[in-house]
Amino acid sequence: MAMAAIGGRLRRRPPKYSAAALAWKGLRGESWPRVWRDCDLKSSYDAVVIGGGVHGLATAYYLARNHGMTNVAVLDKAYLGSGGSGRNTAIVRSNYLTPEGVAFYDRSVHLYEQMAVELNINVMFSQRGHLTLAHSDASLRTMHWRAEVNKLGGVNSSVIGPDEIKQECPSLDTSDHPRYPIQGALYHPPGGVVRHDAVVWGYARAADHMGVEMHQKTEVTDILCEGGDGPDGKGAGGRVTGVRTNRGDISTPIVINCTAGWASLISTMAGVRLPITTHPLQAAVTEPVKMFLPTVVVSGSLHVYVSQTDRGELVFGASVDPYANYSVRGSLEFTEGLAGHVLELMPGVSRMRILRQWSGLCDMTPDYSPVMGFTPVDGFLVDVGWGTYGFKAAPVSGEQMAEAAATGRTPKLIEAFALSRFDNGELVGEKGAASVGH
Amino acid sequence: MTMSRQGVQPTEVIDRAAKLRFRWNGKRFSGFEGDTIASALAASGEQIFSRSMKYHRPRGILTADYWDPNLMVQVGDDPNVRAGHRLLESGMDVRSQNAWPSLNRDIKAVNGLLGRFLTAGFYYKTFMRPQWLWPTYERVLATFAPGGKIDLDTPHAYHDKRYTHPDVVVAGAGPAGIEAALAASSAGASVMLVSHEHSVGGHLRYSSAAADQAALAELRTALDASDVEVLTDSTVTGRYEDNWLGIVQRNHPVAVERLIKARAKTLVAAPGLIERPYVFEGNDRPGVITSGAARRLVNLWGVKPGERAVVFSANAEGDAAVADLERVGTEIAAVIDGRTGGSISSTRGSSRAVDAVVADGASIGADLLVVAAGWTAPTSLLNMAGDRPVYDPAAARFFPSDPPSNVLATGGLAGDADLDGLRQHGAATGRLAASRAAAVRHRLQARTARALPVDGDEPAWAPDERAPLGRDPHPELYRADTHGMVDMSEDISSKDLVAAAHEGYDSVELAKRYTTATMGPSQGKLETVNTVAAIAEARGETISEVGTTVWRPPYAPVTLGALAGRMFEPVRVSSIHPWHEANNVSVIQAGQWLRPDHYGDPAAEVRNVRRNVGLIDVTPLGKLDLRGPDVPKLLSLLYVNKWMKLGVGRVRYGMMCAEDGVVLDDGVTGRLGEDHYMMSTTSSGAGGVWEWVENWLQTERPDWQVHVTPVTTAYASINVAGPKSRELMSRVCAGVDLDAEAFPYMTVRQATVAGVAGCFMWRIGFTGELSFELHAPAGHGLRVWEALMDSGSDLGVAPFGLEAQRIMRLEKGHFIVGQDTDGLTLGPSTGTGSLIKLDKDDFAGKPELAWAADRSLPLVVAIQPDDPDVVPEEAAQIVRGDTNEILGRITSSRYSPTLNRSICLGQVEPDLAAGGTKVTVLLESGERIGATVIDHHAHFDPAGERLRG
After folding, report:
1. Average pLDDT, rounded, for chain A
2. Which positions of chain B have pLDDT values less than 50?
3. Are residues B426 and B356 part of one domain?
4. Are B265 and B386 members of one domain?
5. B551 to chain A, minimum CA–CA distance in Å?
6. CA separation for the pair B933, A76 (Å, rounded)
7. Boundary (domain end) residue, out of B809, B840, B866
8. A2 in contact with B at a CB cutoff of 8 Å?
9. Pairwise CA distance, residues B808 & B768, whole Å
10. Residue of B nearest to A205 (CA)
11. CATH number for the domain harbouring residue B799
């Protein structure tokens, strides 16, 4: 298989998933081997990735797959996928506003399309189409703008009117009765949803097969540095020597911070300040009903995005809470606002019941764009600032971060996202596409 | 199993005189008032109520209450109705949800044969190739989605909300909860008692013991005589910060379902205990029910659950079920005692038989198997309050650990005792809750400036001196020596969970996500502990070591309708709107406002303003009344230009940037008096700028003396524009000299207009014409407008709308924030860079703008297509020649009736910004056209002579 050929360092033959294997094991009553190993923590690795979410795991996977670096540990203070990776609404799309954003996410969609086969796990990428609704002249103008930029970037995206919207998604109220009637939509056929946990497990399993170690319940309490201009050798001009964890110290020349909501706290351990504030982002899910919502629907004006899972539940999200906070308790007002907005779009679902609400932490940057690559501390890399849209970027981020860490050079695709842009004012702008961008 | 209605029971809640007819899967049935849908169907002998999600196994009654996962039905257009809880109503159209072609013969039941292949998570391991078939696979998988059907024509019915501030809310109305409510009320607290069930009493409701019934009667009498507000068929769904509670009331006489938002000073959690199912082979067969279900069926609805029963009992409730069954004539084939090592390992049988197989392999013939295997503590509200309940293996359930001191647990959640003991603990809890609520009330009142003064010192925070409840020993019964269903809603067996754990999904959260156990409609109420037990077993650990999942809100599901409540998005119109409507206006929706877009012919409206005089209603223009000595400092902080020396009567244009230097808003601010200013904002920015101003004042400069009042709707605003505007104004204004020298461009004057005092007007001009922007007290707006129309008929006065204004501002090259700028447009990019005064002390966005000053930025420029008849779309991209490289875009475009050509504003890369530069515009059609950047933003009258006239 591909990873064996490319990585060349396959540690053991992976038990391949397939219908035939399911049938065989079912007949013989055999169980499946562990999806990833339980390893003892070693005292030294070639690279340590902090954060066992999709970004961290994808980075580790590509380090092994594309660069042959397999002596790598992924550390997570809880369990794999316990942060934003398991709390997001799993929407994937590439209809961004800036040419940089379009190119970046187009690569990500491409990697998602191949993921099931490449990782040999069904991540259920359902490219069911993505509608971003416009309820005003102004937002319709932005949709046109996005469509034009998308087309120039080779992305399938166009503005459609209420009649076509009704065809694609009959459950939407496209009449002129709602308070803010739907005037049009940006339609993005390749957009869709993925089974987010499967992406986490798929990367972990594939990385594990190549020798990467996953360490859960392993919390990083400090990052060890030398030569920096701050206390304990941290800070600009220094270099990373290792990390301290609740299970002991590890020495390593490369530490990659993929910790989303905790990104600024972890970076501070290396003496690197990030322009990041952490905000909760809430989501909710309803009881299942038979399928009626064929596409992903987003309304920026109404601050809501919604899709129906293959299990029949509606999954909702909104914009981040306006205050900075590390708490992941939900609020009642969130569900109220959400319900009001959803009923504006689809009055017929008023009898559906909210089953569960939750929230995750988003690492917000001033320009709504990520911070990727090198920092003033040698060997300390960041893949953070993903705000509300980290999940959809995970494959390409992992691929690019792995390249940066392995080669010591910033790949072109992420040049625009360097931390240094906050020192020279070269901000990237995805506010328009990402303020409720799902 | 054959259930049937029996003779009258002393505790029953049905009214046998009131017969209700309804339909079940199209067939006629009947029940009595007080029946649930399920009890009426059971009394009629129905055994199968649903089909399971994956294997489509037949499912019957399990718990006969709200949490019964097998009793989800469709009632009319209402999906996923809990038939174990929803009261029967006459004429109900009830249907099963997850079966085809019928409940008794379901074709997908064939999946049961494939069970060994369809292990938990099987779908992650297959359907990967060929990739192009995945959409087809997905469609097939989606047909397995459980649940009812949505009728998209269901209206969003009446759902108003209620807000309340009780001292004490008691969640749960069993004996302890009722005593807590009564005691708190006696102590002077206002109390709300919330009962999940249709009547108060908790487990006493279905106890036939005389002492229990006497206690229930006594408690109900006491409640009736008390001031406690009792909500039945209602649930405290969530506890948020500071005891902010969501309560859903399902039996409101008017609202379909009502959300009550309560700020409780103390919360008493008394939800009782939920009986948990036992895991063994065949535990989901119809006819296997919990002891609580047996007792409810017999005592509440007079339904005999079966003819011959095996009872597996590990506690007193199970023993009581034996007595209840015997009373209604169910033959007890065997009682297997779980306390002394007895066990059930499987069930056998077909159709109506449920033969129980016990540990030694013997099979006992029966048609009913009643199981009393223990309890789950619904610690949900405590979890939401931050508590981490701890597991006690001796009692085989979780107990509260350390909830915040304004959340108190009582009843079964807190421990065990006899009825008197529970009541005493409840009463003690109620007194403590009332005392602490009084302290909170005192504190709140003392801190609220306008509240009545409070007497004395704040009462001390009462210590918790309640005698703790005991913990009855209970065997740790989770799984027998066989595997069975753990999560009935999701069809997840203990075997699935053990396999998942062995596969590496060995923490509760991972196993939950991988198998979907506990993710279904009952959200773990019945299955969480059994799930944890299965994982613990697979890991060789204890339940304490494995821990539990986090219970998240809501405790019971809430309809979107109740959460949404009434749509409260007012439609805003100006006081002049009736005139527009009477004069063929075409309106446009702009945020909440309806505004005149045009009155038939926008081009003619433009020509009339350029030639004569026109009126536009600009009431939605944001207006903030600013008073105080520190207003100039505030203006200097928020605008990029200077404000310290603006004289009285002067008006200045200002641009605001956010902290990242991006243009936020613009508008003029005038100085009406010594310490009195009026700030105008864009219409769409009115709300946001107000928040922005308040945010800076309240969080950064609370020391400044500035009082901000949003007065957008207090004034009707009319722009009078055109060469004849001065003449028109002179006919209606009094007390002001309109002469160009006395009232020059960029000044403000107060005046009486059309007899209306208190008007002010400033000379500015978005249209590029001589114009007066007049602000009259809103109530008189229509009168002023009509006076202007009447007085100017010989001058050719005519109204104009937003479209004409947009054309004219584009002719003049005025940019619109949010249209010609975007989320990344820095201040200098607007072409008004000279406005930005970096030598000012500090202002919002200064550091970013200082950086920007040294860089070349994209610029807003005026562009004219070479073909004057082509109007590019507002989004058309400016590209490099025949390539796809983006160099800018058209942000505004119109056909100018003044210049008889197409005109645009756009943003371009800095090297394209010079006048005369040729650019290529890519139209949406794909055609590329040539266009030229012009010298000034203004396509028309660049010198501004008309404006200043």
Report:
1. 91
2. none
3. no
4. yes
5. 9
6. 55
7. B809
8. no
9. 7
10. B504
11. 3.30.1360.120
Q: Per the structure block, which two tokens stand in for B785? A: 């407008």
**Nearest neighbour of B142 by CB, restricted to A138, A153, A310:** A310
How many other β-carbons are positioned within 10 Å of the β-carbon of residue B903? 25
The tokens 């010609």 sit on which residue?
B820
**Domain A41-121+196-275+367-434 - what CATH class?**
alpha beta
Query: Look-up: residue for tokens 């000379």?
Result: B763
Q: Minimal Cα–Cα distance from A277 to chain B, Å? A: 14
Distance in Å, alpha carbon of B749 to nearest chain A alpha carbon: 34
Which two three-digit tokens encode residue B520?
A: 């279904």
Please list, in sequence order, all residues whose beta carbon lies within 8 angstroms of the beta carbon of residue B698, skipping any fewer than 6 positions away: none
Instruction: Give A315's pLDDT tier (boundaries 50, 70, 90).
Output: very high
From residue A379, alpha-carbon distances to A43, A242, A257, A407 in Å are 18, 10, 11, 11
Domain that holds residue B260: 162-273+380-447
Dist. CA B345–CA B369, nearest whole Å:
12
Pair (B314, B333) in one structural domain: yes
Q: How many other CB atoms are there within 10 angstroms of residue B645's CB atom?
A: 8
* Chain centroid, CA A432 distance in Å: 19
Burial B176-200 (b: 16+ CB within 10 A, else e): bbbbbbbbbbbbebbbbbbbbbbbb
Question: Chain B partners of A336 at a C-beta cutoff of 8 Å?
Answer: 259, 563-565
Whether B675 and chain A come into contact, CB under 8 Å, resolves to no
Helix axes B210-225, B175-186, angle to 10 degrees: 30
CA B638/CA B658 separation, integer angstroms: 9
Which residue does chain A place closest to B236, by CA atoms? Answer: A332
Can you give the pTM of this predicted structure?
0.92
* CATH code for the domain defined by A130-191+277-364: 3.30.9.10
pLDDT tens for B788-827 read 999 999 999 999 999 999 999 999 999 999 999 988 899 9
Domain co-membership, B182 together with B196: yes
The CA-based angle A46-A48-A50, given to 5 degrees, is: 175
Torsion sign across C-alpha atoms B594, B600, B601, B604:
negative
Residue ending a domain, choose from B775, B809, B843 = B809
A-B C-beta contacts closer than 8 Å: 287
- pLDDT (tens digit, 9 = 90+) per residue, A70-126? 999 999 999 999 999 999 999 999 998 888 888 889 999 999 999 999 999 999 999
Q: Is residue B592 part of a domain?
A: no
Q: Do B504 and A34 touch (CB under 8 A)?
A: yes
Burial of residue B254, with CB atoms counted within 10 A of its CB: 0-12 exposed, 13-18 middle, 19 or more buried: exposed
Q: Is the residue at B623 inside a domain?
A: yes
CATH number, position B491: 1.10.10
- Contact assessment for residue B194 and residue B234, using Cβ atoms and an 8 Å cutoff: yes
Residue of A316, A353, A427 to mutate for B, most B C-beta atoms under 10 A: A353
Mutation for B interface: A114, A119, A122, most B CBs within 10 A: A122
Domain boundaries of chain A, sorted by first residue: 41-121+196-275+367-434, 130-191+277-364
* Cis preceding-peptide flag for B554 (omega within 30 of 0): yes
> Please, which residues 297-326 of chain A have a Cβ atom closer than 8 Å to chain B?
309-312
Partner-chain contact B567 A343, CB within 8 Å: yes
Nearest CA-CA distance, residue A160 and chain B, Å: 13
Which CATH number goes with the domain that contains B906?
A: 2.40.30.110
Looking only at the bridges linking them, the beta strands covering A277-286 and B798-799 are: unpaired
Q: Is the dihedral of CA A397, A398, A403, A409 positive or negative?
A: positive
Examine the domain organization and report whether B641 and B683 are in the same domain: yes
